[in-house]
Amino acid sequence: MITILPALRGVMTSDGRLPRLRVAAAPAGAAALRVPAWETPAALVVALRAGVPAGARQVCLDGVGSITAEYSDLPGRAAGKIALVTGAAQGFGCEIAADLAAQGAWVALADVNEAGAAAAAQRINATCGREAAIGVAINVTDPAAVKACVTAVVSQFGGIDLLVANAGVLRAGSVKTLPAADFDFVTSVNYKGYFLCVQAVAPAMALQHLACPEAWSDIVQINSKSGLQGSNRNGAYAGSKFGGVGLTQSFAMELVDDGIKVNAICPGNFFDGPLWSDPQNGLFAQYLRTGKVPGAKTVAEVRRFYEAKVPMGRGCTTPDVMRAIYYLMEQRYETGQALPVTGGQVMLA
C-alpha cells in the first residue's frame, strides 16, 4: 500500500491538485482493478494510468480496497497538503502541526508519546471542526518504527507532501565530563533520526512526482542556531545540528530529481517555551541559581540578559518559524538551505 497509494495519488491528480485518498473495504461484487506485478516504479505508474479512467474519483484495487479521492477546497497556505510532523505531541511540534491544520493541511502528529500525539490531534480536530489530524507512534531512532509510522500515514491519507523533522533532544555538558551515553542519545535522535525519517518518506514523495511531475514535496528539518555556530558546553547538540545541515545539503542534491526540496530552519532560542521558562527547571531559573548571569537577582533579569543578545530584543516564536516553513514550501527555487530565524543573533556572510 505504501507504494501503490502515492503512485495512485499522482495518477488521480485533478487540475494540478493531489487528492487525499480514503481507503475502505470494496463493496461485495465490485469489479476491482488488478495491477500486474511491476519491476520499477515507472512500470507501476504506467499500469495505473492504463487501468484508472481519466477523471475518476473512485477506484477499486484488488488487494487494497475501494479508494476515494478527496480534493481540498479549503483556503490556506497549506491547503490540501499532507504533512507529517515528528516530535508533535507537545510544545513546538504540536504548535507547528496545529498551524498547518489551520492553514488547510491534513496532518499526522508523530511522537514516541503516542497517547499524547493522539490527544493533541483530537484537540486540533476540535479546533478546526474537521478531521484534520491523526496521532501516530514513532521512535525516530528505530528504522522499523519510522517505516511503520510512514506506512500508517500513507494508509490514512494516501501520501505525504511535507515532512517537518522536528523531533530533537538536548543533553548539555562539557566535553571533559559529558557521558558517552548522553552524546550517543543526542546524536541518535537529532542526526540519525533525521536521516531515518527522510529515508522513509522519500520513496513515497518520489512516486507522487513520478506520476505527477508538477507535484513537488518538501522536507524541512527544524534545526537550530546551534547548527550555524558552536555552543559552549553543548557540543553534542551543536554537533548533531551541524550534521543536520550537512544531511540537508546532501539530501537536497540527491532528491531534487524526485521533485523533493530539502531545507533546514535554524531558529533562535524559544524563551517562552518550557526549556527556558519553566519556573523550576527552566534554563532561566537554573542560570539564576547557578549565578551564570553576574549580578542577576531575578529570573526576569536573567531573561533580559539573554534577550539583549538578540538584535531584535526577543526570543523566537512559533509564528516566526511558521513564516519560514511556508516560505520554503512556496518558494520553488530554494533547496539545500539552512535558513536562520534568529532575530539577527546569527548572521550569515
Write up what this structure looks like.
- The protein folds into 3 domains: 4-70, no CATH class; 82-268 and 320-340, NAD(P)-binding Rossmann-like Domain (Rossmann fold, 3-Layer(aba) Sandwich), CATH 3.40.50.720; 270-315, no CATH class.
- The chain contains 11 helices and 10 strands.
- The protein has helices at 4-11, 41-51, 91-102, 114-128, 143-157, 180-211, 235-255, 274-277, 283-290, 299-307, 318-330, and strands at 20-24, 58-61, 65-70, 82-86, 106-111, 133-137, 162-165, 217-222, 260-267, 338-341.
- Helix 1 (4-11) packs across helix 2 (41-51), helix 1 (4-11) packs across helix 6 (180-211) and helix 6 (180-211) runs parallel beside helix 7.
- The protein is elongated and about 80 Å long.
- The model has no long low-confidence stretch (mean pLDDT 95).
Key traits:
349 residues, alpha/beta, Rossmann fold, 3 domains, seven-stranded parallel sheet, 11 helices, 42% helix, 15% strand, elongated
Across the major sheet, the strand order is 6-5-4-7-8-9-10
Under the CATH scheme, the architecture of the largest domain is 3-Layer(aba) Sandwich
Principal-axis shape equals: elongated
How confident overall, as mean pLDDT?
A: 95
The fraction of residues assigned to DSSP E strands is 15-25%
- Reading off the top of the CATH hierarchy, the class of the largest domain is best stated as Alpha Beta
Total domain modules:
3
Write out the CATH superfamily name of the largest domain. NAD(P)-binding Rossmann-like Domain
By DSSP, the count of extended strands is 10
**Unreliable stretches covering 5 or more consecutive residues:** none
Fraction of helical residues: 40-55%
The class by helix and strand makeup works out as alpha/beta
What is the rounded distance between the termini? 46 Å
CATH overall fold name of the largest domain: Rossmann fold
Helix count? 11
Major pleated sheet? 7 strands, parallel
Order of helices and strands: HEHEEEHEHEHEHEHEHHHHE
Rg value: 22 Å
